[in-house]
Amino acid sequence: MSDSWKTAVKAVIALFLLECFILYAYHFLPLGYFNQEVQIKYSRKESCLHVLKMQNYMCTLNNSMEELLMTTSVPKPLTSTEKEEPDTTVLIWMWPFGTRFDLGLCSSAFNIHGCHLTDDRGLFNQAHGVMIHHRDISWDLSNMPKLPRPAFQKWIWWNMESPTHSGQNPLLKDLFNLTSSYRRDSDIPVPYSWLSDATEVEKNYTIPKKEKLVCWVVSNYNPNYKRSHYFNELVKYINVETHGRHFNSPVNHDEYLNLVSSCKFYLSFENSIHRDYMSEKLFNSLALGTVPVVIGPPRENYEEYIPSEAFIHVDDFPSPKELADHLKLLDQNEDLYRHYFTWREHFVSKRTKFGFEHACRICEHIRKNKHYRVVKDLNSWYWG
């Protein structure tokens, strides 16, 4: 072998070793002098892979038909332990109407990870979010948090009652950072229920056996409500089976389920008329296999939540008499009646887990949204 050839080989080896030294220094230097991706070109795939057995480097082959990327920029799947490690604390400052709900795992219920739900007020200074239920706030705010609020902490105004049944308090102005309610324009909207895609089993739906025509269960009866006026007219033209404390015929939970499912139609009459306010009166009817006859916001608002053929709106008829005539027609025509269940071929009604689901959705929102936010005028937004 000639001296010139030996010199050339030594030069190639020296360059190769120098490049390996650079990679070694990049990987092991503690001060992170080289924190950018190192890109090296090699003529052979084997040489590249041999050198780059360390992480965090990108290797590009000279071969124009082949590229190999080696990088740790793709996140590794989290283990179950890592997923359950909480990094966001949500404090339930007051239980809604004094009633506790289960503080389960948001991860198993909603696939929301990193949440720690608690009612321990001793963790106030560490809580990222504080849930405050509107209907339980004292008029003078005496039961509200007294300590100065940490800068990172968000207070969440939480309410599922309609404006008619929620008192305004001028002291709440500029006090909250976020809102959570049934309203779609809330920061964290949580409806009473929703329709979800049906499984193959759920698509094979059988309408429950019907023994009654029209039913209504009501306890909070106010003669001044729109629903009361409408009911008093409707019963002049069609029989309605009534239950509830107002009619001196209370029913327990199981009796309620059996009753509603045995009725062809159920009067899902809301106690007040407000945008997006569609309570369990609607969704229980859908879930239990009856056709809801609704009083509430306009039909267009309902159709943002459920299919148009899943319900009957009283506003579709000039008077209670015309509605009664339509219900009697459906009672006599099985094909027309069954048309109101075609939505069950695609969807099922799922009920919100009151309180617990709010807390988990609030946690999820706080984890994803770190920006500054203040509800400037709660009263104008909710009651305006």
Secondary structure blueprint with pairings:
Layout: H1 3-28, E1 39-42, H2 45-51, E2 58-61, H3 80-84, E3 88-92, H4 106-110, E4 115-118, E5 129-133, E6 154-159, E7 178-181, E8 193-197, H5 200-203, E9 212-217, H6 226-234, E10 241-243, H7 253-261, E11 263-269, H8 280-288, E12 291-295, H9 299-302, E13 312-313, H10 320-332, H11 334-338, E14 347-351, H12 356-368, H13 378-383
Membrane topology: Single-pass type II membrane protein
GO cellular component, one term: Golgi cisterna membrane
Subunit structure: Homodimer.
Keywords:
single chain, 384 residues, alpha/beta, Rossmann fold, 3 domains, five-stranded parallel beta sheet, 13 helices, globular, transferase, Glyco_trans_10, GT10-like_C_sf
Report on this model:
This is Fucosyltransferase. With 384 residues, the protein is an alpha/beta fold. It folds into three domains: 33-73, no CATH class; 81-190 and 354-383; 194-350, Glycosyl transferase family 10, C-terminal domain (Rossmann fold), CATH 3.40.50.11660. It contains 13 helices and 14 strands. It has helices at 3-28, 45-51, 80-84, 106-110, 200-203, 226-234, 253-261, 280-288, 299-302, 320-332, 334-338, 356-368, 378-383, and strands at residues 39-42, 58-61, 88-92, 115-118, 129-133, 154-159, 178-181, 193-197, 212-217, 241-243, 263-269, 291-295, 312-313, 347-351. It has a five-stranded parallel β-sheet, covered by helices on one side. A five-stranded parallel β-sheet has the order 10-9-11-12-13, covered by helices on one side. Strands 1-2 form a two-stranded parallel ribbon. The longest helix has 26 residues, at 3-28. It is globular and about 100 Å long. Mean pLDDT is 85; it is low at 26-83.
